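Weekly sync notes, structure subgroup
Attendees: PM, AL, DS (notes)

Item 1: joint prediction request from the bench team. They want all two components modeled as one assembly rather than separately. Inputs as received:
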Amino acid sequence: MSEICCGLKVGQDVPDFKLDTFEPTKGDFGEISLETLKADKKWTILFFYPAAFTFV
Amino acid sequence: MGAEVITVSTDTKFVQLAWQREEKMLKDVKYPMGADPTGKLSRMFGVYDEATGLALRGTFIISPEGKLLNSEVNFYNMGRNIDELMRKFKANLHLAKHVAEGCPAKWKEEGDKTLAPSPKMVGKVYEAYEEK
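Output from the run, pasted for the record:
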């Protein structure tokens, strides 16, 4: 079982998370964390999709 | 558009690199592509499909304070519409600056009528909405 279960609800604070990324503008790998986005006072939109090589 | 858009799937970053370079539809993509191969983030947002190991088509808007404000999940076979997303995002920007107001169903962009809930509006939403 995952330590985080069942899905956040609207109105809840999102726990900090980190993601490895591929950044097309740099052609390089990177890392993104919610902590950094909050420090930069940025809105964040997460856009989940099932799999690469399918339509979005 | 004033927000950090991050696309996320359960693929690794290596697969995302390969896809972005191979697929011509993605040649202009500028958003960071997030890799969630363990499904941890997908589970956090409730879009992880245990049966397939894939993430459902979920879109989530998080405020600069880290609060989840909008949540939308579509099944695999329905794509998302950028106009729908932009309306919600613009409404969030407006409401962050005007905390006493609400953006009604018809609100589309800055300048459209908003409503400020009050006792005198009870049962009179139509009148409040139609007055200039």
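Discussion: Chain B touches chain A through 65 residues (CB under 8 Å).
Action: AL to compare against the crosslinking data before next sync.
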